[in-house]
Amino acid sequence: MTRFTSSVSLSTRDIVTTLHTVYAGVIAVGISYLIGFATQMEVLLVAALPLGVLLVMSLAWLPPRAQLFAWAATTAWLLSSVYLGVSEIEWVMLVVVFFAAIAGSLWNPWFIAAIWFIHPLWDLIPRELPDLQHDLPLACLIYDLVVAVYLAWRIRTGFFEGAVGRPTTPARFINTGLSRTITAVVVGSALAIEIFLVAMISMEPSSVWFAAPVAVALVAATLALPHDARRVFWVVFTMWTGMSFAHSGEPLELAVFAVMIALAVVGFTKSPYFWALAWGFHALWNFFPRVHDMSPSSALMGHWMYPLAGFAFEATIAVYLALWAMQANKTR
């Protein structure tokens, strides 16, 4: 992890990193839709093995570091969606999944492989499932083990050696896998708190008045984070915000999500200006004509349900990120 460069021009490495990230996002979203389609068609059990193989083959060609982070993101995306709002006990597993994804990318890849081995056992625990998901436990046993065995093989052969994220310059605290994981968990906790608070008020018309103050409070909280931790927070949160309307499955919304992922990555590698651009663009995107999903499940994601509230929140953050970028240029 290095500080921002003074130029906003993109090198070949920047472009390749961005394309790899967008590609991994497309694969994760695409596989999740295929799983949903197989569930609706009641062929989940038959599709489990082909889908597992397809996921592995889709990511296997990526270089070690890009692939490790792709597996971390895919793990968080695919495995966590099962637990959102299902029951209190499954929130525990949700936390475990996110921790494994973080620790696997910043500490040791075995954390990611382990959660794919453990996940089928969790699905074998007796619990009530919707009629369309009656094959879920056995399907997960097949699908998850395909991924788990592949990851274990890659790790054992040394493919991911040196691929975990670490600072490229000496750092006082985040120089070990454990310390990097702890820092990432703290950053993730700050994001989770914001999501929870927004979920509490986002469905109320009064949220329009609270949006900007919440953004200011969030920015103020991030200022206490170390520089690298703050950068990680904004790259993750920018991607998360880009997902606001992608749940609809509309091609245009998914394209916007991909653009937000790309700007998040370039903002991390080059300059906060790209983050400011992403947030400014998405602030205006709130007003794009669409039917806003006002369901509790959407509010649970921490997205603002009223367009004006979303605009106020995101525009405030865009201004802060633009000021950060200008300050970073002045200090060089």
Q: Overview of this structure, please?
A:
The chain is mostly helical and 332 residues long. 70% of the residues lie in helices and 0% in strands. The chain has 13 helices and no strands. The longest helix is centred in the first third of the chain and has 29 residues, at 12-40.
Q: What's this entry about, in short?
A:
The protein is mainly alpha-helical and 332 residues long. It is built from 13 helices and no strands.
Alpha-beta classification: mainly alpha
DSSP strand count: 0
Choose one word for the global shape. globular
Measure the end-to-end span: 18 Å
The average pLDDT score comes to 83
Report the sheet with the most strands, covering strand number, pairing sense and barrel closure.
Answer: none
Helix content: over 70%
- What kind of assembly state do the chains in view correspond to? single chain
Strand % is: under 5%
Order of secondary-structure elements: HHHHHHHHHHHHH
Q: What value does the Rg take, in angstroms?
A: 20 Å
Model regions low in confidence, pLDDT < 50 over at least 5 residues: none
Number of helices: 13
